[in-house]
Specification:
With 260 residues, the protein is α/β, with parallel strands linked by helices. The protein is built from 8 helices and 7 strands. Helix 1 (18-29) packs across helix 8 (223-234), helix 3 runs parallel beside helix 4 (104-132) and helix 4 runs parallel beside helix 5 (153-173). The protein is globular and about 50 Å long.
Length: 260
């Protein structure tokens, strides 16, 4: 896919992870000046060094002062911010338990990053976009924000919050030139899913086929497939999409694939 993003400045949070890397690479390949933002600054720097015109910033999405400082640095360097991709997110690895046993501190940790963090970055970025009455905000939720799953109460709550926060932002900001949309990935090959499912020693490796039986394509997605959806939403041609929630899930949400 090729779109014209020349001179556009794009901030991607969680940029050092597999999906973040793919998003940044796709935006840069189409002319955007990419800002790799991650709590892992060294990882972000290494990736930015290999990307012409890119810069790297440390960004803890739970730290409002650090967010403000980072976005001010982007404006100082480029004079504008056109695209925000809220990709930073976490899930629980150790605490796959029902709500009655789910640790409160783990709930707080996940909500703080996955929902409050997205709010804080969007709040700071949208203020700059409003000055130019132009911008694209692309939030990364999950199919679990649309159809909940057991043993992940905090994650499903946070990602459902992202879905309706996206719609709220769309109706608040759309009339002022800022389009807000959301991608809901299914199971994607990343560091986290390898630890849980797809790695040889994954925690739930023995249940991979049962999970993929619900995916008509019968496979996990690749990070690049999420990046292509981001590129579509960032494209100038996608100028009438606002408040959309787009599943990129191999058909997971289309319905269960069963033989009767």
């Amino acid at each position: 896919m090729k779109v014209q993003l020349k001179d556009q400045v794009a901030l991607v949070t969680g940029a050092a992870g597999a999906i973040g890397q793919a998003i940044c690479a796709s935006l840069a390949a189409n002319g955007a000046k990419v800002v790799y933002a991650d709590i892992n600054l060294e990882g972000a720097r290494q990736l930015a060094a290999a990307t012409p015109g890119a810069m790297a910033l440390r960004m803890d999405v739970t730290d409002e002062k650090q967010i403000e400082s980072a976005i001010s640095e982007i404006i100082a360097a480029h004079g504008r911010l056109d695209i925000l991709v809220n990709n930073a997110g976490i899930n629980t690895m150790a605490h796959r338990v029902n709500i009655d046993s789910f640790p409160t501190e783990e709930w707080d940790r996940i909500l703080r990053v996955d929902l409050t963090g997205l709010f804080l970055v969007s709040k700071a970025a949208s203020r700059r976009m409003l000055q130019r009455k132009s911008g694209r905000i692309i939030n990364i939720s999950s199919v679990m924000g649309l159809v909940p799953a057991r043993l992940q109460c905090a994650y499903t709550a946070a990602k459902a919050g992202v879905v309706n926060l996206t719609r709220t932002m769309a109706i608040e900001l759309g009339s002022q030139g800022i389009l807000t949309n959301c991608i809901a990935p299914g199971s994607i090959l990343s560091e986290g899913t390898k630890q849980l499912f797809y790695g040889e020693n994954g925690q739930f490796n023995d249940r991979v086929q049962a999970m993929l039986a619900h995916v008509p394509l019968g496979r996990p997605g690749q990070p690049e497939e999420i990046a292509h959806a981001v590129l579509f939403l960032a494209a100038p041609e996608s100028s009438y999409l606002n408040g959309a929630i787009i599943p990129v899930d191999g058909g997971w949400l289309a319905g269960y694939s069963r033989d009767f």
